[in-house]
What does this fold into?
Amino acid sequence: MNLITTTGALASFCKSLAESPYIAVDTEFMRERTYWPRLCLVQVAGPDLDDPAQAAAIDPMADGIDLAPLLELLNNPGIIKVFHAARQDVEIFYNLTQRVPEPLFDTQIAAMVCGFGDSASYETLCAKLAGAQIDKSSRFTDWSLRPLTEKQVVYALGDVTHLRVVYKKLLEQIAATGRETWLADEMASLADPGLYHVTPENAWQRLRLRHEKPQTMALVKALAAWRERVAQNADVPRGRVLKDESLMEIAHHPPHDMAGLSRIRGLGRGFAEGKHGQEILTAVAEAKKVTVHEAAPPRKHLPNDIGPVVDLLKVLLKQVSEEHGVASRLLANVEELELIASHDAPDVPAMHGWRYEMFGKLAMALKRGELAMKIEGRKVRVVETK
It folds into this structure.
């Protein structure tokens, strides 16, 4: 097994790939007990499928190893970095360097462009495109334990060796269908640093919210931002600082003192009387000073009767995606369908570029009554109305 544990070996390996048109990359990490993902292993493979030396697992936890040669390779703008479901992997490298390792190619996104569904797994693509069966028995192993076993390293390398074949096959399909522009748009979105920069003030957006009152919303925002900062600084999962359920309970029933805070389910007197308890009470007090206008989140004002229109657009979306062999998620999501249903000129991705030509134009025609849908056999067909 090719396991790199020294800076010298890493520098030599990265130098051998410095002129490659692309490299396949994957990571193994742990974050169950931390806020920031703990990088445990990096797998890299060059384009030569017949050279075993072009695939290596790099141990970032090895004593004295310096990852600078690897990070330089990843930031080389002349090399395409191929990932599968890249977002979490890219987040790790962004946290290390504050840079996105461009240019990127995500095989999961490319598979969506090629009609493999919304979230094709690596195993599925390997089986269909590379003729390889992936042994996932080591998927949930503890990658932070040392020494790594040969089975672990062989498993990890499988996540990049077959990825090269998947990448080439997807490139061929995309070229054959002329969808290079589609893919470029998606990769540009994936390379946006804003995806990986965590801002505590935006932490409330990950919570499942109902139609909250403005003052409740102010508390949700304040508490979520406080929790995010504490979790980042202590490098612990946000749920270990304060669970979502407790956060929402505080926001809906704001306590006035430690006694009230201690009665919040899941907290107790020890928490309330500690440092975090006082910080929460301070956040609650500050949130109460926020005006209604400042607290209210921007809301979509949608008509109450658009449900049936949205349902029709969903059927159209599914029909178009199946007809053209492209994942429906790439064309539009439910929120965009709601805006299309309720506005004459909605500013959504489906109304621009290739998405408009494929779906948006039909969606607007359906709204205007210029198109209809009918069932022929077991298939839905789109027809012009007379």
User: Anything to note?
Assistant: The mean pLDDT is 93. Residues 150-177 form the longest helix (28 residues).
